Amino acid sequence: MAQHGHSEACCSVPPSKHDYKEKGSYFEIDGMKTYKTGPSTATSAVLIIYDIFGFSPQTLQGADILAHADDEHHQYQVFVPDLFYGKPADHSWYPPDTKEKGEKLGAFFQGPAAPPKTAEKIPKIVKEIEEKTGGTIKKWGGLGMCWGGKIISLTSTKGTVFSAVAEVHPAMVDPKDAEGITVPICMLASGDEDNEAVAGFEKNLKVKHHVETYHDQVHGWMAARGDLKDEKVRKEYERGYQKLLDF
Q: N or C: which end of the chain has fewer CB within 10 A?
């Protein structure tokens, strides 16, 4: 059974194993280890809010793609803060097929992964990044993966620090959240999301948007659950990131 509004897959499918050597480096923001990639002279930046598995290789590879895939035309600084302070969801909790695993996962979503608590941190994180990068950043975009998609929905309302946002295989999709979003948004859903919730979300959007469902992909294909050794998954992973760049 899905928990706390997550898709069935979000609470049953384990992350994929994947090897990737990231191109960027790490620094500290608000006490959090933060991955940074892309040219330091870029005036546009993207804040990635990862899924519950934290710094997965697929997520860092995605950050590098966004930072470097369009160097000739548009450059981005990309940042991925470790919002779980080195303690993401444990792979051993998946699938949560025992009472103990279910309780641990539930406690995680109600504790360190509670969306409202995380959403409150985002403006401070963005401000500190701006200060530590010498004021080069003039415009921000936000990208949320799975659980991170909910954080994006909550932080894209009136007064948001973001100029545009995106959510990929979002968890806890709530059509009511869409009503308050004030900036352009791209949502790439997987075949595991609730189709009615995704459709309702799109219907309630009052801003420029692109909503698309990758019906043959699993929840998490652009992050920790993306099996990039599978050619079809890899192609859709790359197509998804190209779609984000185009948006």
A: N
